[in-house]
Design goal:
With 50 residues, this protein is an all-alpha fold. The protein is 58% helix and 0% strand.
Length: 50
């Protein structure tokens, strides 16, 4: 099975702007909602497709 490779970008915390954090939180909230709406089989299929 192929695995997704995270694309991590290293940076200094003091270089982040408030919008970076806000956009990240919004993305996590959106993904959490999407995941919560999926059934057990759909979750497995989603993970298997990555």
């Amino acid at each position: 099975m192929l695995r997704a490779h995270p694309q991590l970008i290293h940076g200094k915390l003091e270089k982040l702007h408030p919008t970076h954090l806000t956009v990240g939180k919004a993305e996590v909230a959106r993904k959490r909602t999407e995941w919560g709406n999926l059934g057990k089989k759909a979750r497995k299929a989603t993970l298997d497709s990555h």
